[in-house]
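ping. complex inputs:
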Amino acid sequence: MKTDAIGKPVNHQVMKRGYILKTWLLLLLLGAQGWRVSSVCGSEITPEHAEIIEKQIRPVLEDSCYRCHSAEAKDLKGDLRLDLLSLPVTAKNANMWREVIHNLQRGDMPPENEPQPTEDARQGFLKRMVPLLARHEADARGPEDPLMRLSNSQLAHSLQDLLGVSRHVAGSLIQDPVHKHGFSLQNEFAISGGYMELYLEQLRLAVADAIPDLDTERNIYQLTGSDWEKQHFLTTWGMSELSRRNLYDGPKWLEDKFEIPLPPKHEFRMYVKDNRPEGEFRVRITVRNEPPTDGGKASKQELSLYLDEGFMRPYKRIDNFTVPVKKGSQQFEFFGNVREWVGVSLDPIVRTPAANKHAMRQRLRTWRILSVQNNNNLVDFPQPRAFGEPDRSGEVYLVRPDDIWIDAFGKQQGLFRSYLGPAAAHPGKKGTTPSIFRDVMKKHGHVVIEQIEFELPYPAGGSPTLKQFMTDNQLDRKSLPAKVREFAARAWRRPLDKETTAHVDKILAEEFAAGNSERGALRNALTIVLSDPKFMYISRAGLDVRARNHELVSRLTYFLWNGPPDSKLLLLADQPKALTNATLVREVDRLLADPRAKRFVENFTAQWIGFSAFDQIAIDPNYYRNWRPTTKEAMKGECVAFMSELLWHNLSCLNLLDSDFVTVNGRLARHYGMDGVAGMKFSRVPAPAGRGGVLSQAAVLLAYSNGQDAHAVNRGVWLRARLLGDPPSDPPPDVPALADLPAEKVDTFSIKQKLEAHRVGTCYDCHKDIDPWGIAMEGFDAIGLPREKILSIGTRGRKQHPVVQDVEFNGTRINGLSELKKHLRTEHADEFAYGFTSHMLSYAIGRPMTYRDNEEVVRLQKAFQEDGHKMRTLIKTIVTSPLFKDSK
Amino acid sequence: MNTKTGPNRRNILCGAGVALALPWMESLQAAASKAAAAAPPKRFLAVYVGHGFAITLADDHPARDWSWYPRVVDGRMKFGKSMAGFNEFTDQTSVLYGLEHPRVIRSNGHGTADSFLTGSNIGDAIKSPSIDQVAASVHGKKTRYPSLVLGNDAGLGTNGASRTLSYNQFGRPIPSSNDLLRLYNNMFNSDPRLQLGNKLRLAADGRLVDRVLESHRDLKRKLGRADSEKLEYYLHSIRAVEKDIERMESWSDTPKPEIDSSILALDATVKDPAAFIRTMYNLIYLAFQTDTTRYASYMLQSMGGGAWNDIPATLGIGGNHHNLAHAGIGRNPAGSGLAKYDKFQGDLLTEFIKKLAATPEANGTLLDNTLVYYGCSNSNTHNNSNYPLLLCGGKNLGLKHGKFHMLQGRDVPLNNLYVTLLNTLDAPTQKFSDSTGTLNDVLL
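pong. complex structure:
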């Protein structure tokens, strides 16, 4: 590969990128006095500088730049006076020097049609200037701030790990800033009074979850065994009523045993009359995997568990789980915090019956639904419509018409008949919705639910976190201090010295002195410990050798788990010589094998793809009539699953450019028009035509659209930043609006033609190297589906334009996304490796990359490439790199 | 406010269902303080609807009667069906057309709620403080709560899908609240157990502040010569928390005003939107009347697709607000879904206005001393210009009402209006965010 003066890969043949200068940079040339050897800003020009200037800098500038960029220029281009540049590099001229260097390196300046400097002259110039600039940047940075605040997500996960709770507080905190080119900005995360107040509020709630109030009776809502027979049906508010029991077509067939069959594409709901908005919960479900009743083999069943507040169709998932083919009962447990399920979006499809609307709403306001769904596909089975909805076979789960409502104080006070049931006034429907589950079970393997338990709050009085503070099942004033100290050492990620020990003891003592009970004092003490800067901040540079090790392992786990180090790592850190590179590498494997490593993949993917941009785009339903916003979750899932696949299976990251596989679930497969994938879980399948790599992942295509149409410029910028490691410069401020195109042209121009209208003046210099990347993707719309025509809806109504997606890069023609992906994989693998290395390193150390890091980035890039572009290798080399260990 | 004198106020009703609150003026007379001679305070409420209203200005449009914009007949505004309640108050109302925040014209249509009260670009890391917070920075100390930040979809939301209208002096979003019970408890509940609980919590907070400050000093010392800017930010943030504790402690001995809470449906939820919104307006009303606060911002729904996006279905109109807004005013003289939704909100707002108008104060009515600002940051959805805006009340602030102002020719930022409003609210300023002047000639 061709490299430039400092080893950064450069491929001049393929793309000539634009040059644009920020006009405001000129303001930096305050007091510049022209090209004199006298000083600027008071610093002396050394004889060494003077020699450099004479021999290698000035000639190049004179020959190649002054023609257009000096006082003598006939036509001063870009309002830029390079004859005002001088040495040394200072804060005032550093940006200017950087631009000059970049443009020379890329060969963008001087422009093609002007005389070029000789190769020697160019190399000489760069060899001198680049280190001068790097040195300035290193000096200008000053001493690195030794502290860095944990991100919202890291704070949230830390609380989960340390307190043993499910509550995730990140969504309630002021959002962390996001870098538009996907780098980490963690070193800039600040804190404010407002932030602190929100954090404290959430922290108190989490601590209350972990250390609940005085023991209350356990509140388990249960549906089990022969309770069924004791339950009788009541009808309320006078709806047309025969005893439900006679109409019920369900478990009765199993005689007296309460068991709920749940065949594929069916859903069972348990209504819990408890709508408190706070509290940890536990669900335990006991099921059996059964073969088809007509004979045949059993099969593994993919189930999902949902929880919702209200009487609308259950919406938010707790988890997916697989019931393998095994004999006998199998039990599954799930935990969560109901706060995550409060206020979840209501399904607008369900209609309320006209009669007694208000009364019903009063009652139903207090219900919560736990829903189990069987996601397996129906094979050779025509699916009847449900509730008058348009046929969305495969998407709509058939709700059993005999939903069971349980008055969930655990007593069998009575069942309220589901208003969705057979005789309910359902608009447009008469008679019953057929109960088909028996027929389905004849031909399909299914599960049978033996018992469901829903416990809220969990654990009432028996919190495992609380237990760790107890002695003989009691909170004991004498032994509490030692236990709180133990907690503080874990929370602050370091052993306590004499001062911090005394400090922790004082915290607890003051709480008792204020008259608190043991429980109250413990809660307050934990809150104080978790508000301490030793918890909220992570160190970037060691204070002493022993502390350095603890800080290093903290950085390690916050990198790969988004959470605090476990006891094994803390013990390792206690031994001064233990953290060798070999140990670190081994630990990487151990950490990646832990379930917490999922958070790393999720967070890195969110940053790299740009989920915050994705979340903000609202798809216009006028353009996409069949669009369902719930598909968005599946789109994000695809990106995370893809990245996971690369990591867990040690695949080459070049697959991000183009791959022969995709990772989809049932919902996304349907969106893409693929067969053969069902269920909510993501799995790796061969890529259909046109798919593969990240560029055809719907999340990328949607995030860099405008909700109505693709956005070629945004997509081009994303590609440059993430896949080529070369983010374009920002547009200069005060870009004037394009003169309006003539009306008849607006309607007929393709996006390519419209963007070519950018070819005025300096806009073109940058846009010629951004737009084509995006134009090659025009064959995919804003929801990631292929198209041959582009829809536009204006005052003149709906119009269709043909897609134009062929572009040319210096002699190479590329027509459409598939060719683009191939081109990237064959011609730009080096730049991709550089870029991906930068992004991962940035994520690990919490700041964007600068010029100074370049050498190290290139070293890591080489190791990454030499080992087949494996992410695990990259992580290991990062973790042993001085940039991470010394974290400057 | 002060203790009871005279008859037991719980037994007195004033007006149909109007809350029984200790009127501002009476309480001060009871206290016989010098302040009693002063004029009643000036209040401000900003109410926001997202996505857009059903609008047309074409008088021959088949659905003109359902347009949010009034007709002008003989120089007077005549509101259509969705805003009919305002016909009673046309001489205290102004409607504005043609203004917008220039910095967000080209933003995604769904991202403009963030900047409604600030005018800042969504891409800015730090925004301008919002108009209500600027006013609160001047007079907020005089009341128990400097301001109320309310939103049916509560919280912060995200950048570009904000759930709050208010940004503090540092340009950071202030999370909005939809917790009716908590608002009531904070402002009006004098239950001694609650008071005690608050006192204990404030004391615990005070101890927390002391301990972490000690820890901070210790950490700073350990860092030695290595300076940490982050640690400085931490110190400032803890000090801000400390100041807030002090403020709340200073108010904890002042009794809360007595009100009749029977008109508040504190357990209302999104499933009964009318009851919920009505309760929210009642809380604002009571807060203003008892001078518990003078400034409030209320976001009726966020544009990030929260639960309140779906209330048209609950209301029987069908669909969700986002989709209704895309369908717009339609051409049906019976009114489109969006128009019916506008009526739902308009009716609840005018109920609130009526309450203000029926409440006497020393120099007129509570409405005369309250500026109500109602509007949206899209004209049609995704079109971030010509915001439909309405001002009602505030006669004693000097505002001259009664007209429908067409301001599209002026080409000035919307924040020019905010400069004028701030000055009428006695928060004098020459500039606010990206303002270039004022609209004094239009409104004063």
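Residues 1-44, 224-257, 344-365, 384-435 of chain A have pLDDT under 50 and may be disordered.
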